[in-house]
Amino acid sequence: MAVKKASEMFPKSLIEDVHKWGCMKQTGVSLRYMMEFGSTPTERNLLISAQFLHKELPIRIARRAIELESLPYGLSEKPAVLKVRDWYVESFRDMRAFPDIKDTADEKEFTQMIKAVKVRHNNVVPMMALGVNQLKKGMNSRIVYENLDEIHQFLDRFYLSRIGIRMLIGQHVELHNPNPPLHIVGYIHTKMSPVEVARNASEDARSICFREYGSAPDINIYGDPSFTFPYVPTHLHLMVYELVKNSLRAVQERYVDSDRVAPPIRIIVADGIEDVTIKVSDEGGGIPRSGLPKIFTYLYSTARNPLEEGVDLGTADVPVTMAGYGYGLPISRLYARYFGGDLQIISMEGYGTDAYLHLSRLGDSQEPLP
């Protein structure tokens, strides 16, 4: 199949517009700003928010569309990556075609349009993973994956930008909820209990473990359940779920043929002045030191990609978790970094692994803008 560049698929004027907007400066916002601004979702505030997104989202989307055209090693030509590029160009076109937002009626229509954009991009992560797999299959095995730093760096930028775009759209859409639950501002919970979120995420991960192995190690959580701070619960749930699932798998596989009872996974939640830190500790045998640099990369996974199975490549939801294609850790680290935190993994080969998830408590840091 002949590879079609964006300039052949879309009108020349649209591609020129993409390049023009891709050169404009992005504007970051902080968690604190989103929380304070969204705490009074008046019609005027929703109008201001929509006007900001009408200008900001095309800039962010255009940057990614341009980058998708110029990836190394022929990644840009892979069918799955072309599909993603088309989604980005189509979303850019929809944003730019929307007239200036002048009143509440315009704002409501704009909100429906950006909701549709968010749905269009639901499967970007597995689709890009499929593109990377298509690249790996066609590559000379002598090319060492360490040399693919450019692709790792691109995917980090790309997925971090995607987190930001989805946060901005989701936050705006959620502010329209006429009866928000107590302490909820859009996607943000102003009094989130990290212990409670960790407990829910752990139960979800254990149920997956039960389904795959027929049993699951215990999980003990230490920390003050009444301690709260403002954060995005869906982001924290995703990160803790991923870490706990990795620990459960490691412990389960280490003790599968053992007479000994599998040791529990320990989760410790500490509230510091600057950071809230969540430590997930297991005795699953650890990771060799030579393997540690690989755990945050996108090119080593041997896991099966659900899209390889011929699932419709459109916008149907892919019925798996992120670990289904080995992107759990690198993407969890991006979620942590998005609001000024980080994720570190410390391992003792022959014993187990400790994951430290740092979350910025202050909410002041601006979004990183790749």
UniProtKB/TrEMBL annotation:
One of its GO terms (cellular component) is mitochondrial matrix. Its main location: mitochondrion. Pfam families: BCDHK_Adom3 (PF10436), HATPase_c (PF02518). Keywords: ATP-binding, Kinase, Mitochondrion, Nucleotide-binding, Transferase. GO terms for biological process: regulation of glucose metabolic process. It comes from the Eukaryota. Its EC number is 2.7.11.-. Belongs to the PDK/BCKDK protein kinase family. This is Protein-serine/threonine kinase. It comes from Thlaspi arvense (Field penny-cress).
